[in-house]
């Protein structure tokens, strides 16, 4: 038998929009709708109907809580009309690129790291850099395997009745942090690398200092940094943001995935949230699906 309580719950379930509430709630959309609700309540109060205004505000806030928005089509309206700078305040817009100390392409060309392709239509790794970069990747893999072997051979010091706490990823994490320390010039004891799915977030003393789209992107940067440190005189004198920009630029020219050696292709896609949408071009491995980079695509170049 269906009770009135069950009926109310069923009605609430039909009204609720989980794609716009809970963890999926969009803060910019919510702020816009609450502002409209407050404006409406204020208008009613100004015309001598404060009770009606208060009741209307309570009802509007209830609708926003249930559905995520009050005005139909809010996600499309905010996507179209909210300025990029406002969306960025809520972490919804495109991340603003940090100011570059140097022009990465010019720097790499002057260092003979990049050269023109034979048809002069594009740029590519110089042969010496491609070879050295590949050797550096082999060295990184060797470092990881040695760390793994050392971890396996380490004596277990826990008491016999204590649970074993060894993590299979500990060795890889230690090797990654050591590589991150060499990459950033920051003491390893201050660093941590947090893998969330395919994405790595780097922290120094708890403060986020960077991220990589995938392990392939991380390996590409670590290997390139080793080569540039050994072969380019002024590399270590550049600021960390400048080096980061140069390493990111180098990933645009990676043809074989550093993680699995699959082919890297360029593809255009649309990045969407409930209140923003923009075109990007990304480098993706066809074998392991790792993303090496993602760049905003100017609207004039986007495919309709």
TrEMBL record:
It comes from the Archaea. It holds the Pfam family DUF8054_N. Keywords: Membrane, Transmembrane, Transmembrane helix. Residues 13-92, 103-162, 172-252, 255-294 form the DUF8054 domain. The chain crosses the membrane at residues 26-46, 52-70. Coiled coil: none annotated. This is Uncharacterized protein.
């Amino acid at each position: 038998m269906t009770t009135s309580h069950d009926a109310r719950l069923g009605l609430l379930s039909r009204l609720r929009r989980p794609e716009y509430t809970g963890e999926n709630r969009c803060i910019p959309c919510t702020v816009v709708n609450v502002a409209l609700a407050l404006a409406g309540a204020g208008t009613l109060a100004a015309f001598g109907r404060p009770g009606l205004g208060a009741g209307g505000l309570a009802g509007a806030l209830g609708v926003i809580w249930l559905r995520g928005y009050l005005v139909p089509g809010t996600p499309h309206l905010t996507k179209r009309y909210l300025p990029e700078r406002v969306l960025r305040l809520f972490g919804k817009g495109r991340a603003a690129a940090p100011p570059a100390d140097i022009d990465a392409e010019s720097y790499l060309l002057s260092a003979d790291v990049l050269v023109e392709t034979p048809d002069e239509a594009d740029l590519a790794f110089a042969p010496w850099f491609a070879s050295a970069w590949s050797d550096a990747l082999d060295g990184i893999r060797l470092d990881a395997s040695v760390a793994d072997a050392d971890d396996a051979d380490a004596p277990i010091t826990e008491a016999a009745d204590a649970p074993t706490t060894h993590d299979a990823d500990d060795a890889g994490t230690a090797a990654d942090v050591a590589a991150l320390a060499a990459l950033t010039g920051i003491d390893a004891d201050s660093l941590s690398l947090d893998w969330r799915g395919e994405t790595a977030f780097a922290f120094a003393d708890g403060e986020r200092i960077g991220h990589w789209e995938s392990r392939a992107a991380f390996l590409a940067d670590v290997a390139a940094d080793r080569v540039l440190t050994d072969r380019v005189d002024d590399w270590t004198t550049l600021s960390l943001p400048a080096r980061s920009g140069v390493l990111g630029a180098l990933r645009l020219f990676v043809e074989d995935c550093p993680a699995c050696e699959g082919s890297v292709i360029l593809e255009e896609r649309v990045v969407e949230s409930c209140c923003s949408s923009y075109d990007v071009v990304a480098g993706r491995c066809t074998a392991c699906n790792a993303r090496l980079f993602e760049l905003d695509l100017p609207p004039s170049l986007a495919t309709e």
